[in-house]
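User: Some background: our group keeps a shared notebook of sequences we're curious about, and every so often someone picks one and asks for a predicted structure to add to the entry. Today it's my turn. The entry only has the sequence so far, pasted here. Could you supply the structure so I can complete it?
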Amino acid sequence: MKPVTIGLLGLGTVGQGVATILARNAAEIERRTGRPIHVTRAAVRNRSKAEALALGIDITTDAAALVSDPTIDIVCEAIGGEDPTLSLLHSAIDNGKHVVTANKALIAVHGNALLEAARAKGVAVAYESCVAGGIPIIKALREGLSANRIEWLAGIINGTGNFILSEMAEKGRSFEDVLAEAQAYGYAEADPTFDVEGIDAAHKLTIMASVAFGMPLEFDAVYTEGISKIQREDVEFAQELGYRIKHLGVARQRDDGVELRVHPTLIPERRLLANVNGVMNAVVVHGDAVGPTLYYGAGAGSEPTGSSMVADIIDITRTMDAHPSHRVPALAFQPEALHSQTLLQTPDYEAAYYLRLRALDQPGVLATVTTIFGDLGISIEAIVQKEPDPSDVSEPIPTVPIIILTGRVREGLVEQAIIRIEALDTITQPLTRIRVETL
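Assistant: Of course. Here's the predicted structure to add to the notebook entry:
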C-alpha cells in the first residue's frame, strides 16, 4: 500500500522522539498498520541545528508550506505554544491533513473549535500525548473503558510537582529548596508557574474529563490550586496521620453536576497513588462496571511522549481510508451527543479536610473550636494537639499547632468554620486547609 507521510512541526525533544521511534520500529509498525510510515519533512526554527541531527528528513523553516504540502498525510505538532501553532493546525485541517498534537494547552483551551473544524473536513485530530506523556490514558478512556459510566478519576499528572512533594516527604526538604533543584535538573522551567500552580495539570484534567463524561472542553471551569504554599510541617503531620500529600487533578460526576479541581490532596499512604514518586505520573479511573483501574508511567520525555504520538499516528493510519463516522469520536462520544453539564463551584465540592491551626496554649481553646464544627454539623475524625515549641519565647503565652481531620463534608460548611475559627482571639495564624481523598 501507499506509504503514509508525516510532516513534523518541530524537531526538539518530542519531535526527535517521534522521528526516532518511527525509524527504529518501522518494521514492527508496518506489521501493525499494513503500510509503511515515513517522516518526510520537518519545519524548524534553526535549520543548521536540525540538519546536524542527520535524520534523513527534508528540513524547512517554512511551517506554513509544510502544512499545505500536498504530499503530507499527517501533520505532527510538537512545538507547543498558541501562536502561531493554532493557526498552523487550522491550516493543516483546511488542507485536509490529519493532525497529531502534544499541545495540551491548545487542546484544553481551543480544542472545541479545532475538533469541530476537523469534523467538518473529515479529518482526525489526535492528542494522546497531551496527557500523562507515555501513559495511554486517553485511549483507555475512549475505548478500553467505553462500556462504563465513568464516576470519577484522579491523577498525578504533573511530574515536576510530584518530584517536589516526593522530595519534601522523603528528605524533609523545603518547597523552595526542592524547586531550585528541579530547575537545575530541567524538570521545572525558569518560570515554574504552570507546573507548581497547577495550570499544566488543569489543562490535562480538562481533556480527561471531557473524554470521560462526554462534555465539551471546559478549561475555565477547573478550580486550580498549586503546591507553593505547602509547608514541610504539613508534609510531616500528614505522614504521622498515615497520609501522603500529592498534587491531584480530580474529576467527579455527581447527580447534581461535575467537579473539576486541581489541588494538593492528602491520600491514605496505603493507596497505590500515594506511592507514586519522583517525576512519574499515574491516574486512577473508577467506572461503574470495572471499578477502580490504575494507569502508571513516565509523564514526559522524548520517547515516552513520542510513544503516544506514534500510537496516534498508527491509529489514524489504520482508519485513514475509512469513512469518518467509522472512527472513534475525538472526545469518545458522538459529537451530537456531547452536552454541557452543570459545573459545580467550590462551595458545593465534597471532600474530607485536613486543617492546621496555631492556637494559644490555654484551656478552653480546643473546646471552642470543636463546638464551631458541631454547630455546623461537621464531623471530626481526628484531632492532634502538638506540644508547644520550647524554643519559642517570642510570646508570653506559647502557641501550639492543632491538626484536625474532618469527615466528608460540603466545602461551603468548612469555609464557614474557618471564618469563625480565624475570628477567635486565641487563634494566632490563618488556618491551613488541604483536601483529603480516600480514593
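Suggested note for the entry: The two ends are 48 Å apart (CA to CA). Residues 4-134+302-335 form a domain with the Rossmann fold fold (CATH 3.40.50.720).
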